[in-house]
Amino acid sequence: MKVIKPSETLAEQAYALLKRDIINGELKENQPLPEETISKELGISRTPLRDALSRLALEGLIIQKKGRPAIVAGFTREKSLEYMEIRSVLEIHSITKIMDRVDAEFIDALRENLAGQRSAIEKNNFQEFIELDREFHILLASKNSNEELKDMVERMNTGVNRAFLILSSTVPQSARSAYAEHVEIIEALEQKDAALAKEKTIIHLNNVEKRFLKYYSNISQ
């Protein structure tokens, strides 16, 4: 771990560094996070560290238990597939409903997000990529007129519902493929081709699932 720098709040820096190590797989599932050890490694007191741990717990990345060190969270194969199924149903349905609302401003916003994704990949900043990937999927649903559906898509791409994407540590290996799939979705939207946009969304979400199934296959061997 890197030593904390005083340019931001200590809690924010601790949160970012710990989340990065979870994303990169340096902190593994069920690994304890003893406050005394972690605070010494980061060069901060326990108070900002506890704030950082609380934020990570809210996102489902760690599990906190009274009287015990926090541990890096994990997800079962079955639970991951349940989340993916719900997410796929919502996002595939949504993409078919937004075509008449697609305009140049919307495409520009998507492409700006894509540029950020590409930059994050080139910098090997996969924490940034994950946030931009989350924003991309929420942005896609933002054109849907159904407010409840938009809220559900956002929930499925935020916090605990998205944590298993990070905890599988597959993002560094799959970011370029995910980016290319996002490009194809935008190109279909630009063409105002609803069937193609749906097809590309299905392919993308199916590939996300395949990448997780490969992860679970590897850890069971």
TrEMBL record:
Keywords: DNA-binding, Transcription, Transcription regulation. SMART domains: FCD (SM00895), HTH_GNTR (SM00345). CDD domains: WHTH_GntR. Gene3D superfamilies: GntR ligand-binding domain-like, Winged helix-like DNA-binding domain superfamily/Winged helix DNA-binding domain. Pfam families: FCD, GntR. InterPro entries: GntR_C (IPR011711), TF_FadR/GntR_C (IPR008920), Tscrpt_reg_HTH_GntR (IPR000524), WH-like_DNA-bd_sf (IPR036388), WH_DNA-bd_sf (IPR036390). Residues 8-75 form the HTH gntR-type domain. It comes from the Bacteria. PROSITE patterns: HTH_GNTR. GO terms for molecular function: DNA binding; DNA-binding transcription factor activity. PANTHER family: TRANSCRIPTIONAL REGULATOR, GNTR FAMILY, UXU OPERON TRANSCRIPTIONAL REGULATOR. This is Transcriptional regulator, GntR family.
